[in-house]
């Protein structure tokens, strides 16, 4: 499965925003990319024969403090 980013003005702007010196702008761009690419990555993990055995999907809020035991 390939993820292809087209060189549309919106996608170029998103990638540039991810490298912004403004932390809020960069964070918002990273969240937007994660929302776009997350479902595709989840599908790959669930369908790949060995990947699905290695990872368990977890959902959490952006403000959550994560602790794994």
Overall mean pLDDT stands at 82
Number of helices: 3
* Number of strand segments: 0
What's the helix-strand series? HHH
Low-confidence runs: none
How would you describe this structure to a colleague?
This protein is mainly α and 69 residues long. It has a domain at 9-54. Helices cover 57% and strands 0% of the residues. It has helices at residues 9-18, 23-47, 51-54. The protein is built from three helices and no strands. The protein starts with 8 loop residues before the first helix and ends in a 15-residue tail after the last helix. The model has no long low-confidence stretch (mean pLDDT 82). It is flat.
Short description:
The protein has 69 residues and is mainly alpha-helical. The chain has helices spanning 9-18, 23-47, 51-54. It has a domain at 9-54.
Topology:
Layout: H1 9-18, H2 23-47, H3 51-54
Keywords:
69 residues, mainly alpha, 3 helices, single chain
